[in-house]
Every structure is written in structure tokens, then in C-alpha cells.
Amino acid sequence: MASLKEDPILGIDGITIKEEFGIGKPVIDKLRDDRLALETEGTVIKGESVIDKVREEGSGGQGERDMVPPTSNSIHRSGSRPQLDLSKAAIEGNFEERDPTILLPNQSDDISHLALDIGGSLIKLVYFSRHQDRPTNDKRKKTVKERLGISNGNRRSYPILGGRLHFVKFETSKINECLDFISSKQLHRGGMDSHSWHSDTSSNGNAVIKATGGGAYKYADLFKERLGVSLDKEDEMDCLVAGANFLLKAIRHEAFTHMEGQKEFVQIDQNDLFPYLLVNIGSGVSMIKVDGDGKFERVSGTNVGGGTYWGLGRLLNQCKSFDELLELSQKGDNRTIDMLVGDIYGGMDYNKIGLSASTIASSFGKTISEKKELTGYRPEDISLSLLRMISYNIGQISYLNALRFGLKRIFFGGFFIRGHAYTMDTISFAVHFWSKGEAQAMFLRHEGFLGALGAFMSYEKHGLDDLMVHQLVERFPMGAPYIGGKIHGPALGDLNEKISWMEKFVQKGTEITAPVPMASSGTTGLGGFEVPSSKGGTLRSDASALNVGVLHLVPTLEVFPQLADPKMYEPNTIDLADHSELEYWFTVLSDHLPDLVDKAVASEGGTDDSKRRGDAFARAFSAHLARLMEEPAAYGKLGLANLLELREECLREFQFVDAYRSIKHRENEASLAVLPDLLVELDSMTEETRLLTLIEGVLAANIFDWGSRACVELYHKGTIIEIYRMSRNKMQRPWRVDDFDAFKERMLGSGDKKPCPHKRALLFVDNSGADVILGMLPLARELLRHGTEVVLVANSLPALNDVTAMELPDIVAEAAKHCDILRRAAEAGGLLVDAMINTSDGSKENSSSVPLMVVENGCGSPCIDLRQVSSELAAAAKDADLIVLEGMGRALHTNFNARFKCDTLKLAMVKNQRLAEKLIKGNIYDCVCRYEPAS
Amino acid sequence: MEHNREVEIDGNSNPIQISRLALDIGGSLIKLVYFSRNSGDDEDPPKDKVGVSSGVNGRLHFAMFETAKINDCLQFISANKLLLGGGFQHQENCTNGMSFIKAVNQEAFTYLNGSKEFVQINHNDLYPYLLVNIGSGVSMIKVDGDGKFERVSGTSVGGGTFWGLGKLLTKCQSFDELLELSHRGDNKAIDTLVGDIYGGMDYSKIGLSSTTIASSFGKATSHCKELEDYKPEDISWSLLRMISNNIGQISYLNALRFGLKRIFFGGFFIRSHSYTMDTIAVAVHFWSKGEAKAMFLRHEGFLGALGAFMSYERHSLDDLVVNQMMPLPVNASLGTDTNYDPLNGDINGTESIQCSVYRA
Hints:
The complex is a heterodimer of chains A (935) and B (360).
Chain A: E1 11-12, E2 15-16, H1 17-21, H2 25-40, H3 48-58, E3 90-92, E4 101-103, E5 112-118, E6 122-129, H4 139-148, E7 163-171, H5 175-185, H6 194-204, E8 208-212, H7 215-218, H8 220-227, E9 230-233, H9 236-250, E10 255-259, E11 262-266, E12 276-281, E13 285-292, E14 295-302, H10 306-317, H11 322-330, E15 339-340, H12 341-344, E16 360-362, H13 366-369, H14 379-405, E17 409-413, H15 421-434, E18 441-444, H16 450-457, E19 472-475, H17 480-483, H18 495-507, E20 550-553, H19 579-603, H20 608-630, H21 640-653, H22 661-683, H23 687-701, H24 709-715, H25 720-729, E21 737-738, H26 740-748, E22 760-764, H27 770-785, E23 789-794, H28 808-816, H29 820-828, H30 843-846, E24 852-856, H31 871-877, E25 882-886, H32 888-893, E26 903-909, H33 913-920, E27 927-932
Parallel strand pairs in A: 5-8, 8-9, 12-17, 17-18, 21-27, 22-23, 22-25, 23-24, 25-26
Antiparallel strand pairs in A: 1-2, 3-4, 5-6, 6-7, 7-20, 10-11, 10-18, 12-13, 13-14, 15-16, 19-20, 26-27
Helix pairs in contact in A: 2-3, 9-16, 10-14, 11-14, 14-15, 18-20, 19-20, 20-21, 22-27, 23-25, 23-27, 28-29
Chain B: E1 4-9, E2 21-25, E3 29-37, E4 48-50, E5 58-66, H1 70-79, H2 90-99, E6 108-112, E7 115-119, E8 129-134, E9 138-145, E10 148-155, H3 159-170, H4 175-182, E11 192-193, H5 194-197, E12 213-215, H6 232-258, E13 262-266, H7 274-287, E14 295-297, H8 303-310, H9 314-325, H10 329-334, E15 354-358
Parallel strand pairs in B: 1-4, 8-13, 13-14, 13-15
Antiparallel strand pairs in B: 1-5, 2-3, 3-5, 6-7, 6-15, 8-9, 9-10, 11-12
Helix pairs in contact in B: 2-8, 3-6, 4-6, 6-7
């Protein structure tokens, strides 16, 4: 543009590209290339002169060739330096301005996509944010990648973005809060794709946001005025179906049934999803037969829907809001309004046709004969009768339509449901009743977000279509238990605001009480016929509504390839659907909380700031617990592993990076000090004795576990080595679960027959200190001695005192100082590249050793879900023929019942009386040595 | 007394002293069927007459009372010296009553756009059919033959719902008054139509016209108006359409499910009320995409009572009806397809569902 003034600055959120990123000539060349590409498609680039200008300026910059991604669509490259992907770059805003902003839609870091579903009562936002990866340039990783042959290449034409998918709701009446939120998070800046770029920028270079719902028309001008963005309207039904398909395919336990107040999550086989009936209950009801992605047909519907409930309810009750009406129904008794079968047949069932006395014969039928006026009836009763009438009717018509088209599943969604337990119960009851138990109504956890998600899916090139279920991790951030995804007020920016927010909640008296013993959560009685019990004094009125977390998209996650049956695999051994279990673990976690906070605060130096964060963490985590006590299904299917991970995530959210940092360090030091003596002791034994001693050692050392309260008490009574020796001496075979002989035979053979050693062993390690150094390392050493490659598998992120993959190389290096076997193997595995060790031996001799490697497992939890492991673990596992799972978290709480394709050894000391009784019918400190040959 | 209709039965054998009464005491209405000898009261020339060439001469009377006013009914019974019949099983009686339609010519008719067309049912091709009895609630009964039937479905949204909700919303004192109101109603004020959502346009992508009701009472969610601001006429009409539409839809889906060729609608809700019939007919037409038609019966509302009555003398009157009706000349002249809408296809066609409506 000719009128452009001198020295334009290319700013991204106020950062000048030139200074911050050292923009080089190749980048500019690429910019120009893209511009050319755009021009050939007939689009005028208004910022042409800006680009040219930058090229001139940039030509003097450092011309690092490899700074520029070789392909124009490469979104993410890890490296020490931030990268800019300038493809599709655009000058935004008025070009008369001095400082036009350049939009970089394909720039990967912190770029968001936003889609909206603007309904009559709620605005639903789905936005995607890509955060910068944590540094990944450690040498260990590089070597592992080389060794395991992990390529960085992408199979897709464009890579899947790693990042987070957020789900947020606003009330439509408070649309300004929504606009503030978008504006403060700059969500509208990235909300464009190549398609909209081509079609819209020719006029004014303005961004486009995908939107659906009636409000997409109504509020288009407001968005234009306030945010300068246009809303690109997407068809509602297209969005609904796209959203439902995505959720059902990408989220493992998205669907659930709801009978008599009980939610049960259903895992749906992706390959067996279609066809299904999607019933969207808005003002009216649409019934859509879905045959596949983008293949659907509206087959039926009914005009008796949410609008009817709300409309009639308002006329009859003078309620101010839909939620108020819904809440009234909780306390209602429909017997005063509805004519029941018993009313007609003198209180008796009409057995002949299978109708019980409490079946509704005629909705509102009783009001005919009563002499009462409208005001003579309780609004609660009217609301309940209305709710039942409409829910039953929808359930019935849906079932008849499913039957008609031979559809196996019926999913219900839409604003009428709102996670309201009684509504779901009545619909479920109707489907169950009319199908004589053969069909089940199912609901979706992200039910309110189908449209917004579908609109989001309509963007091109986000790659989400290709996402697999194992690449998504749902996390529940602080505040989730309070607000359930509904946002009021501006976005919380930084940690400080988050802490203040938590504090404010406490001040307002909304404090969530510590977990209380749980009452059976039956909201309704048999068959949905009884009066729903009211839930007073809970966090929110829609207590049974489900919370929606943030979906973390981690494209690098993979399914552990050695799982014998990935489809049937369930990581959790303990099902928290059992209320007594839930209660027990909640108590354990609550009791442990003060100690954890102390450690966390100490790990950050005990400053005032860390104390404040510690308090906020304690509140936030207690709130999570209270919420889950109130509604165990609130966060989806809940296993112990999820609960333990929630705690770690909550710590990280308040920037406690590693609460056990100093403890781990201290224990590692102490253990490394006694390792040489232990190795000497081991080497003096015969092979057979040594193997037993090694397994004993692993079990004995597993006592060092800060996750176990019993063990924490032990620590105060002696030094590490004392406890270790005492523990090992106590190892009396047979253990509670004792497959040692079978394992020994596999390792050493029987008689003269020498078995072929394992090619590669994966050792899933547990705690820092004695556990890994005195237990697992010597076992690894023994395997190396047999000629077996050893891969130590450790956490990616800290959890309790578990050793992490980042810490292990240093530990191994330290241990290798005293042991040639470990040293040569570590060198061969690339762990000692930089380590300062004595390399007086010839290096050629060393290279003959089998390697010892370290890989990260992809998680930050004391447990492990083997459906979602890091790509490097998955790669390492491909050639493995022995798996050793060690410790309670990975071998008992999770994976105790898992079966693998290769030989598996599960080793753990049970440091919890209840678990010991439940799992192995034993006692605390009993040991498990379970060996399962390849299946 | 709400209704009093008579069917004359001309028998030519020895006059028996019959003054039999049968009752169907429903949640909202009590239906009476009683028989009187020819010598009985003859105020009006009977509107509906059934000729029977043998048996007794007399009249079948049909009367209806509100259940709430059961004392009126008892008074009526005692005043007319009617003997009270025994107990009853409602459902059985409905189907018994239905057998009667075999006897009465031009009992069934279709109703669409305000015009009535009588349909001749071939007796050999009557079964199976769906009988939808709309009383306070709605029963859907699959009838496979005489005495062979099964209640396959139903809905609690029926006549009682219309009347009950209508009473609460409009302060109408009687069902008829409420129905009367609906004549003058306009549902645009209360229902959300497809056009309201799509800016006056059809949602043609899924084949919904702009006047299709998207959400019954959907407009009442607006905060600007209270109950008093809506015309009772409009409320009544919206309510009627909501309920009729729903019954029509569920009935059609059930007929489809069991492969039934005909749906007969009956029960007091219909009440020969043209709007009720029209909306049910429209619903069936809409959901079946024109493949099915709603059919109504002239003696609707009295099926239960009539069936109870029939159960007195199953063997005589049943046989009498079937046997005596057949040879009537009028039968032959009407036994053609002339009463059928071309859309409806042949009565023997296996694909289409024919919905019949019975009423009295």
C-alpha cells in the first residue's frame, strides 16, 4: 500500500519480530513466496509494501538457512530458538495506522482458534491454544531418538497441533463478559483459516470466527463492532453432528447412561459407532440419524421440547429462568397433577398390560376433576409434571425412531438436558420402558458444546480430525469444581489472579467443605417414578451436571504397543465407582494434604509467595475432592490413577514444579553412597542366589515410598540403609504372590538348558532413592550382564518422590563411576556423553556392551495408563520382550490385571492394608512378585 | 348429559325385555351404552341407524358424563331405570367395541382439510390394525382379530392433558368450552415456528416449512408477556395442536413398527371435533410423508362402553352384527375404492398404512 508510512514494525502482541526473533532473509523470502501464492489465487495483498520493506531490513540480518521450516506448513519444530511460521501472514487492521499488526495464522506458539455457539441462553466457546513446549533439547532425548530410530517426520500433510482445547460457557444475556474474555485472551486474533483468508481479506483484512446458533446472526454486528471480527455462520446441524462425532471418537468415556441417578460411562468402539441417533433437545427436538462423518439425515423430531417446557412452565409458574423452573421440579410431586394408573384403577396396578399404579395415565389429567385454580397447585408439582411429560415423550419418540431405522444407540443432547439428573432419568426411563430394556439412552459429557465444537471442526487444517483417542488427555484446572465451565467476569490471566480467585471464593463463604462421608447419590427412585430427592446446600444447583475440563492435545502420545488387548485394557485396578473405595481414597488424600503442602512450600524455599500458593493449592485440591465426593462422575470415569494425577496437576498449576525435589536429592545421595558395597555383596553370590537377592532387593527397596503414609512414619525411625536392610531381611518367601520360580527358570533355565536371554527389557521404575538405586539399578545391571538391552522407563514429570526421566541420567552416571557394567552400558546407550567419568579404558572395548537407556513415559502421575505413553517409550517397546513393572502405582493400582504380549514381571510391596486385603487377601508389607510369560 | 346418540337395532324376532346398560368409567368421562326396546323414548329420529334383520328391535343409546359429575350420571341411570351392568376391562371393551365397526356401515372415515370421507372396510381385510384410543391418556392397541389384541404403546399426553392444562391456563370450565375456544385461536402467538428461527424462511435443507411448529409454547418463554397477555383462544389452539400432533406421530411410528395397515383413532378427545381430527390427520400425513391417512370412527368415545355392552351377549349380538350386516345392499354399493384418496392407494396394498378413525 502506497500510503504506508515509514518504518513499519511487525508486531505480534506488541513484540517486534526483528528484535525478538531475529528475522532472517529466508523468512522474508518465504513470506514473499506465500504472497505470490496468494496472488495467483486472485487475492490482493494490501500489506505488500510492508513485506518488501521487511525484506530490505531483514536482508542485513543473520541468514541462518535452517531457521526456516522446509515445508510451508510445518507448524512446530522444537529447537532452542523460537520459530516463526510466517506462511499466510497478513497485515491486520487499518493500513493507515502506523503500527499494523501482522497476523500469523500458521505460527504455532500461542496461537488460538476460536469457535462459538451462540444460543438463546448460553454462549459456548471452544478455543484452542497452543503453548510453547517445555525445552526438549536435552541430550538424552536426542540419543534415545537416534538409538530407537524415532523420526521427526510427519506422516500427515500438516501436523497436528499440540495444545489445549478449552470449553467455556457464558450467559447470552451477559454477552459483554464473553467479548471481554475473548478480547483479553486475544482469541479472535488467531481465529482464521486459509479459507476465510482468501475470501475475506480482499475487502478489509478482517479476521473471521466460525460460529453457529441463532445468535451467530443476531450478534454478528456486535462482534464486528467490539472485536472487529466477522462471524462465519456454520449450519447448526452440521456442527452438531461434527461435534458429536468428534467427541464420541476422540474421548474415551464421553458417553454415559443415566438410570435411577447412577451414571455409568460407556466406552464406544470407534469402529462400531455408526449409525446412531442423535437427539438434540433445544426449543424443539431434532432427531438425526448419523451414518458417518458428514453423513447424516434429520429423520424426525418433535415440537414438544425444551421450549415447551420453559414456555408452559413460565405461563403456569411465573418462573424467571429455565434453571429456576428446573430446580422447582426437584422438589415436586406429580401425583397432585397427573392422573396415575392407580387413580383410575382404585390404587391397583393394571397388571394385565404391565402398568404399575404409579404409571402416569394422563399428564395433567388430575387437574380436570379438581376444583382448584392454577394458584391452588404447587409450582414445584407443576414443573415436575411438565418435565416428566416432555421427557417421557421425547424418550418415546426417539426410541420409536431408533427402532424404525435399526439404530443401536441413541444419544441425547441439547440445552434441555443441562446435566439435570432428573431429566436424564426420565428420558432414560422412557427409552428403557418402551424398549423393554433393550435400548439405552446415552448422554454426552460435553453435551452443551456439540455445536461450538462442530463449528470449531469446520476450520481447516487444525488436524483434529485425525486425532486419536490416545492423544487427548483431559485435565481439570483449578476452579472447575466451582464453576463447571461457566465463566463470569474476565479471564484469569496469571497465577496471581488465580490465587486471588481461590481466596475470594473462601471469603465469599462459598468454601467447599472438606470431603464428607458420601450418601448414596440416588436422585430418583425406581424407574424414575418417585420424587427426586432434593439436594440442598450443594455447590451449585445443577449438582449433578458434569464438569468439563480442558482437553490437552498431545500428538506424541501413543498406545503402548505391548498391550495384549488394547481395546479391553483398563488401567485402574480399583474402580472408584464403588463408594466405599472412593470414600477411603478421598480420606487418604485429604489426610495427606497438609504434609504435601508443607513439602511443596519447602521445595520453593518456604517464601511467603510459596505459602500463599500452597494455601491456594490446598483449597483448589480440596474443592476437587469435595466436588468428586458430591458427584463421583463429575469428571468422567474416575479411577484412582486419575485422582492421583489430578493432585499432581493441581500442584503444577500453582507452580510447584517438584515438591519432593530436596527429599529426592537427599535420598539419592544416601543410596548412591551405599551402592558400591551392595554391588560387591551381590557379585560374591552365585547366579541363582543373586537373582533371588536382586528381586528381594527390589521388593525391599520399594518400601521407600512417600506416597504411603505407613512408610513416611517409618522414615522417622531410621536411616535409609538401615530400613533397606531390615526390609530385605524380612523378605521371607513365599511372598503373598510368588512366581519367582517361574521367572528364575525363564532367566536361568533348569538343569543344563540355558535359556536364550531377553533381547530388550523395559524397566518401569518407581521412587527415587533406594527404590531405584538399590533396587532397580542392580536388577538392570544383572540383565545387562545377561546381554539384555535395558530401557529404564521413568516419569516425564515429577509425581511424589518418583524418579523422573530427566533425573535418571545423572543417577546412572553417578552409579557408573563405581561399576564398569553400568558404565559401558550407559555409554552405549548414550547416557554418559557429557558425564565427567574416567574414560581411561579403550572406547572400542566399551562399545561392545548392550546399551542402557532411559526413556520418559509421557506422564506425570504415580500411576500409568498404558494407552497414553510417550512416542519414545512406544518406540522402545516395539523390540522389548520383557517388561518389569515396579511399585504400587504402576504394578498394583494400575496394570495389575493388564496382560502383555511379552514376558512381564510385576514387583511391588503393598504398603496399604486395605489394598493388600482387597487385591491379594494379604496384609500390609506383603509382597507381590507376579510373573506372566508372553501371552 | 353430554351426548346422547342412538343406534336403532331392528330385530324381527320376539321382543325381549332388554334394558341393558354398559359403562366405561374413564378418568375424565363416563360413557354409557344402553339398549332400549323399540317402544322406548323416541324424542328424535335416530341419527345413526343400524339395520339388523333378525334379533331384537330396539335402540342402542350412547351417553356421556364427566367423571367429576358422576352423581348426574347416577341420577340419569336411576331416572331411566337402567340396570347397571357388571365390571369391565377397559381395553378388551375397546376392541369389542371395535368389532362393532364391522357392523355399522360408513363407520370409518378420513378427515383432512375439513372434509370427511367415509371409508368402507373390507371385513376380511380388517386385521391387523392399530386402535388408538384417546381418553384421558392414550392407549395404542394392536388388534389382530376378534379378541386378539395387545396394548403395544400409549402416551400420557392425551385428552386429560389437553383439558387439564387448558383448564389451568384458560380457566375454561369444560372440555367443550376449551375446544370451542380453539376454533378461534391462532398458534403463531405462542408457538415458535420454523420461520421464527430462520428469519421467516423455510429450513428447506431438512424439509421444514416456515409454518412448521418448531417448539410448542416456545414463544411463551419470552419475558415480555405473562399468562394474562395471551388469548385463551390461542392457548387452546396451541395446546390442541401440540397434543394432536404428538398423538398422530407416536401412532404412526407404532403402526410403522408393527407393519399395521390402518390406524383407527377414537376416544372422547376426538369428539367429532373437526380441529382435533384435522390436526391428527395432518400429523399422520406429515410424519408418514403422505403415505398414511388418519381415519376416525363415528362412534368414537363409546368403544369401551359399547364393548362392555357387547360382552353381555357376545354370542348373540356379535354374530348378529357380523352376519346380519353382510347382506345389506348398501354394503355392496359402497364396497369400492371410491372412498379412497388416490394418495392412499388400494386398501389391500401392503405398503401403506391406512389410518381409520372411528367415532360416533
